[in-house]
Each structure stands twice: as C-alpha cells, then as structure tokens.
Design goal:
The protein is mainly α. It has helices at 14-57, 60-67, 71-75, 81-102, 110-127, 129-135, 149-172, 177-200, 210-225.
C-alpha cells in the first residue's frame, strides 16, 4: 500500500500539545482585550456625541468618525445608536450598584442601613452628573421611548436593584412590602428632584444645599418609621458632595 506524505498527521508530544494550547489561549485573550479596547473607544466617542447632539441628532457615522473607525466596524459591536446608548447606561448602572453594595453602616441596623444605602445612590449621582443625564434620559431631550422595551426593561431592573436595599431596610423596620415600596418611591422621587435642582443650578435661587436637604429628608423618614432612632448626622466640616 502506498502512503503519501500529505496523508500523514504528525503526533504532538504532551509538552508540544500543552504549548500549542497555551499559545491559542494567549491569542484569544489578546483578541478579547483588543475587542474590549475598541468597544471602550466606541462608547467614549458615543458619550461625547450624545452629550452634544442628543440621541436624536447623533448618528453611527459621527460616532464612528470620533472613534476613528468606519461605520461598518461600529455595527460589528452594536446594531443601532440606541444599543450604544443602552450599553453606556448599563455600564453606569453597574457602577451605581457597586457603590450601593459597598455602602455599609458601622452597625447592622435597619435605620442605619437605610441611611447608608440612600446616601450611596444619591451621592453617586451627585458626583457624576453625566450618569444622571444617562439614567434619567436627560441627554438633550431623550424620552424613555428612545429605547426599545427589550433594551429598557433590563436597565430599569438594574436601577431597581440599586434602590432595593432601601426598600428592604424599610421592611426590616416593620413596613409591609407595599408600604415599603411606596416610601422608597417617594424617597427616590425626592432625591432625584434635588439632584435635578442641583444639576441645573436652580437650587441656588433658594440658597440651599441638595446634600443637606436630602439628609434631612432621610432623617425625618427614619424618625417617622422608627421613632427614637436617628441615622448619624454628618459632621459640620464634612466636605459637600458638590464641592461647596
């Protein structure tokens, strides 16, 4: 029987096989890192375009130009500008959730937990006004309809994840799930209102600090839900979140 050389399959030693597998894994890791870097560049470019033009005025072509890519390259990562916006918002919400998770009171008591978690989400948006824009569709008039239901639902769920610890603390203070949800909604609405006043500069007409007003609201909420227990009030010399 004739055997042709091209029909022979080389048999690798165990060491050679391991070396080949390692090279493959390293190549895949480099490709993944490159992909992540390119995706980050696209998101950075999109952030600036959305801030200037809003979602309605933005275009894939302009985002691609600022990222130094072709529109076709952008579509390999995102299928629409709304998908890019959703990715930016998802990234923001992950950072919000991490900050809320890291906020722990010195003692594990419901009223202290409520104060710590509320201050965490409020402080995040106070220090990061661009994330406030993203989270509340303030990028030059974007309405919630700017995102599809498929994109919007998981984003809303992640925002609720960041707010849920306050709701759970209220339940631990004796509220029913329904009452805790109502109070948490009111807390969120109050905080967002103060953030918008601060973000737009309108709060200056009242000569007030959004941070102190929010702390006062949380203190009053704790007093109402758990009389006699008050979350610690920040020392007078504590730096204001807004640099005042």
């Amino acid at each position: 029987m004739d055997v042709h050389l091209h029909e022979l399959t080389p048999v690798l030693s165990e060491a050679d096989a391991q070396a080949a597998q390692q090279q493959l894994q390293q190549r895949q890791q480099r490709q993944l890192a490159m992909s992540d870097t390119r995706r980050a560049l696209v998101l950075d470019a999109a952030r600036s375009v959305f801030a200037e033009k809003g979602v309605g005025g933005a275009s894939i072509r302009e985002i691609a130009r600022r990222a130094s890519y072709t529109p076709g390259a952008i579509y390999s990562y995102f299928d629409s500008k709304e998908a890019i916006y959703a990715a930016l918002l998802a990234e923001s919400l992950e950072r919000l959730n991490q900050e809320v998770a890291a906020a722990r009171p010195p003692k594990v008591q419901p009223h202290l937990t409520l104060s710590a978690k509320a201050q965490a989400w409020f402080g995040f948006y106070a220090r990061n006004p661009r994330d406030l824009d993203l989270g509340f569709y303030l990028v030059q008039g974007l309405a919630p309809r700017g995102l599809t239901s498929e994109l919007n639902q998981p984003l809303n769920a992640r925002l609720h994840d960041a707010l849920r610890p306050c709701e759970q603390a209220m339940q631990a203070m004796g509220l029913s799930p329904e009452a805790a949800l109502r109070e948490n909604t009111a807390l969120f609405a109050h905080g967002v209102g103060l953030l918008l006043l601060q973000h737009t500069g309108r709060i200056r007409m009242f000569g007030q600090s959004a941070e102190l007003l929010f702390q006062a609201y949380v203190d009053q909420l704790v007093d109402r839900l758990s009389p006699g227990e008050r979350a610690p009030v920040p020392a007078p010399d504590q730096p204001d979140l807004f640099g005042r």
